[in-house]
Fold this sequence. Notes:
The protein is globular and about 50 Å long. Strands 1, 2, 3, 4, 5, 6, 7 and 8 form an eight-stranded mixed β-sheet that branches. It has 301 residues and is of the alpha+beta class. The chain has two domains: 19-165, FdhE-like domain (FdhE-like fold), CATH 3.90.1670.10; 174-295, FdhE-like domain (FdhE-like fold), CATH 3.90.1670.10. The N and C termini lie far apart (43 Å). 37% of the residues lie in helices and 12% in strands. The structure holds zinc ion (ZN) (2 copies). One zinc ion binds next to loops.
Amino acid sequence: MQTSNLAFQPPAEEAAPYLLPDGSTLFAGRADRFAALAGGHSLGDWLAFLGRLSRAQHDALQALPELPLPDAARLAQAKTHAMPPLDASAPPAAWRDALRRIAGQLAADAPAAARRALEALAASDDAWLDRLAAGLLAGEAPAEDAAELPFVAAALQVVFTQLAGRLDASALQPLDAAGVCPCCGSAPVASIVRIGSAIANLRYLHCSLCNTEWNVPRAVCTACGGDKDVALHEIEGGGQPVRAETCDSCQSYLKIVYQDKDPQVDPVADDLATLALDLLVDEAGYQRSGPNLLLIGAQGE
Ligand SMILES: [Zn+2]
Ligand SMILES: [Zn+2]
């Protein structure tokens, strides 16, 4: 039996080290969460729009044909070299179909600036789209494309979520870099403390690109692995199931969301509904350790 790296007794049923995304429900659930968070929120219009974007991601994923999974040679190579099986720097060409579908669905109902970006994306040639995707996936997206980037990211999430969801979880392995996704090598958007029989109170990091989750210990910095100088912060009186976990060793932070405080919590949506918490820890000098790709242009990254 696999031993747990947690300090307490392992649960009776073995806890899953990896939770692969379910493409039939993931984006629909996120759409509902954005819609719920939008009510009475100071950024309600934006969150409601992101809910419609998540719905368009759901529809695009359902319309997507089954994409080819990595072949046996790639899987064997990944296993030998502790590399992720999916290559996030080489999205399948179908991501552009997902993008055009999302753009077509959203444009009519989008705020003016977003509508211009969506129309430009829908009308653009493959070469420009591929340049945008390459820049975004390399973390070097040009600032002048900021308005287009959330939609590029949304389409890339669709294809990588379908691929990740069809991998064999039992064939995955921890990578040398503990802080990155074991399916696609991307940075996490946040971590989530889950409820449910075999995984109750376990913490998982949630991939910013493919929505895979992987188990990590609690009270340990998810960026540097240190456990001495980790602290949790929340907005006073906020009443939200979201905290920021900061680390004084590496001066980084990432949010952590708690399903026992709200079962509907979503790492991507709840992150964007709590930007005040980012401001709080930014002002205290901490750097965020993983992106939220739906915000990446707005952050000027
Ligand atoms: Zn991933
Ligand atoms: Zn750290």
